[in-house]
């Protein structure tokens, strides 16, 4: 990769291409090398320009963004950042894009001047992070975890807490689909815009044997259910212990995030040996301190290995802090989680 992140913008709207070009070109660490109005033009530009990162519109005429993304990930894997409108349809398509291997998704800059500045800063940070990610061909991304036959019988009363960020959607599809129908309750914080978490939970529910829901304040936890933290203005915690309830509460961002993995892990730490903490691929340090609290309380703590991460940031921070008991590949993670839950 060159010193500056060479970026190709793919969007069917001329005004949006111009807006994204202005935003990205204003960052001295990013160089916009091309503007493509649709995937066929983008394909030629990829061959000619060899960009480090592509920003890709989710919904386009002709060959849609998903079909183009799938071709990219099969034939020439490279970091792709999806730019989406915050609509129900946009959310569903974006979740599928992340499952196919897009590194991350960002909302198209919109709203009042302050919101546009905030969106612009996030876009630039995401593109730069994507350039440092480890992207693998789509054929290799289908985790062997689906082939594992985990035995739900014999697991004791436990709570599983999982945190993830960049690359986490793809990882969670693989991991959660490998858990049995009667798995211990699973609480998940995945850094994601508020408009996307409901669609994410619904899509996971169609793919997994366990039931997957977007968490609701006051909801009792139970076996066979995965609870996805809603994005936006609230943190998700466990209140009331092993047979407790979901607690959603407003609060300032922690380590830059809301909901925060640290907040979830800290709330689960009092369970001690009745908890398993898992930290997956992601940028930054969210979850490291909370996982350390879990380990010090006697919980089992697992981190995704560098080799299987899209971004080895959050797992690395937790490992270097001494919070991770064992690092594992994504394919080995489901069985390790269930083994930690057995009597």
Structure commentary:
The protein has 343 residues and is α/β, with parallel strands linked by helices. The protein folds into 2 domains: 5-139, 3-Layer(aba) Sandwich (Rossmann fold), CATH 3.40.50.2300; 142-341, Methylesterase CheB, C-terminal domain (Rossmann fold), CATH 3.40.50. Helices cover 37% and strands 21% of the residues. The protein is built from 12 helices and 14 strands. It has helices at residues 14-25, 39-49, 65-75, 88-100, 113-131, 138-141, 168-177, 194-207, 261-268, 288-296, 314-320, 333-341, and strands at 5-10, 30-36, 53-57, 80-84, 104-107, 159-164, 186-190, 211-214, 225-228, 234-239, 245-250, 275-279, 300-304, 326-328. A 7-stranded parallel β-sheet has the order 8-9-7-6-12-13-14, sandwiched between helices. Strands 2-1-3-4-5 form a 5-stranded parallel β-sheet, sandwiched between helices. A two-stranded antiparallel sheet has the order 10-11. Helix 9 packs parallel to helix 10 (288-296). Mean pLDDT is 90; it is low at 140-148. It comes from Sphingomonas mucosissima. The modification 4-aspartylphosphate is found at residue 57.
